[in-house]
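Researcher: For the record, we're logging two predictions in this thread. I'll number them. Prediction 1 follows.
Model: Prediction 1, sequence and structure:
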Amino acid sequence: MKLLVRPRPFINESLESYMLRLSQENFFEYYQQLSRAIKDWLQLHDHEAAGAFPEELSRLNVYHAAQSSSRRIRALKLVESLTDNEKLPLLHLAVMHSSEKFCSRYSSVFYAGSHVPRALVRQKGIPVCPDCLTEANYIRQEWHWMPYEACINHGKQMLHECPKCEEKLNYTHSECLHTCRCGFDLRNADTEPADEWQLIASRLVVGEPSPSNHPLLDIRSVSLRLACLLWYQLYAYKTLDASNQVPTLTIERAIEYFTHWPEVFTQELEQQAALSGEKLVCDYNKTSFRDVFGNIVGISRLLLKAYPESDFVLTPLENFLARLVDQNPQSRVPNVADLLISMPEAAILLGTSYEQAYRLYEEGYLKCAVKFKSHEKLVNGIGVFYLREIMELRQSRIPVEASSYNNYLPAW
């Protein structure tokens, strides 16, 4: 099997868009005709790879593979060799799985050097910009990311529904780049001028310089910009929506919230501290930090890997907690600085790994505030260390250059 025509890919084209153009330019009436032909060819050359190659365009990308992503990559490598000339750029356009975790536990995908939270990847519909389609008939990968609500090139809102039949647009289901299922040419659609927050949200995704002075646009890493949007959803609403995604309304509110960063965040923390006494069932020294402030520490480690600006949220939180401890010195009567911190929270506040934090506990640098029974072990979600001791130890840290974590103890 050989594909006679190899269209030139656009630099920001999605894999699904390129494969759709590939099938059209090689005179396949439907994409599934091409995918079935590829699957039959793979059966002859590598039956394991054939099993990992889906027929549906919507399931093609690598990150959709649940357990066989390596075989999906192998299948795409084989497909790349189906032209006599230069290889197809399939893996270059693909969106991959990522081992990066956002806000301590939320999964991500990887594309063009950036990690994107899975909660910000569009699942049901993919909007288009009619003006962009008029200029070049292909789907841009950034249109797949939820914050991209406005075209930054034309200053107009993205088109989510067909103006004629009002069906939600999704080219991976309709297999049409510039037309709706009903036949309407989307290039003829009119869209409204974009709001300021929509343009800011879209620029967060693209990473281009912007005339706006919004604090999120000062962050150079696209991954961290998107992490902040996920953080706000978890901070304001505690969880994702029913589809495990960040709603568009949350993105709009996040853009407004971070306009006043970090003052608005610090004020809210101070209010929670002032009202902490109303939430107490036991004394402060027997109350978990999470019972008063929620999981604010856990979600504030935006990314596991170290970036120059990775403490965008964590630093204001640490500054607040340091002031809280200074303003509430130890006394006979427990106060808010005596709240109990769990082991994972201690590792985050100390800026070190979980293993290093556990060593600090084992070697006596961290004193446990809870008495355990014989053979009883630490449980991750239970507060066991005093907040004041964690923050005091934090101030005594030994920074190690070019390291993701702070070192408190030698390796051996």
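Researcher: Logged. Prediction 2.
Model: Prediction 2, sequence and structure:
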Amino acid sequence: MSDENEPPEPPRTVRLDRHLVRALAHPMRTRILGLLRVYGPQTATSLAARLSVNTGATSYHLRQLADAGLVLEDDSRGNARDRWWKAAHQGTEFNKAELLEQEPELALGFLHGIGQTYAENIFGYIDAMQTMPEDWRDASLLADYFFHLRADQLDAMMHEVMAVLDKYKTADLTAPLPEGAEQVTVQIQAFPRETRQRDEE
């Protein structure tokens, strides 16, 4: 039973508004937040090593994320010279149409940062394929599919896919890996493609 005097647990997911999207419009902040969510608390130095940038850059972006309430200082680690940071939430939700209407340029910057991270994930996987254990190489997938769908059909498909992903969801990505497990990324992009000239009527 939890102590009634203990502060409530912060929400696992944060919903982006026009103010928070300003903090995430820079691609490096999106990447820093993702690293903290996946690998747990980090210092500006360890983040700089992962991102191949200088510590001054990660320190600056961490302060911006902290001002927005997206990261918190981890008081249980480090010292005055070695500050540790952790993600304030495990996930992010946002309404694309709402953000694009309220802050179009910032929203596009945020979405471009996400797309850049997805591309880097794919290239990292491709580079690792040659030395990847055979069972993981066989289990992995790099493919795309094409359909003729209405918007409501695509929406229904995505709800079904998300239901499957929810079945395998990891509650805490920073927890130790179970025996034989690896961190796995499943990326989903589903959108209409303009593959032919529409008939003009």
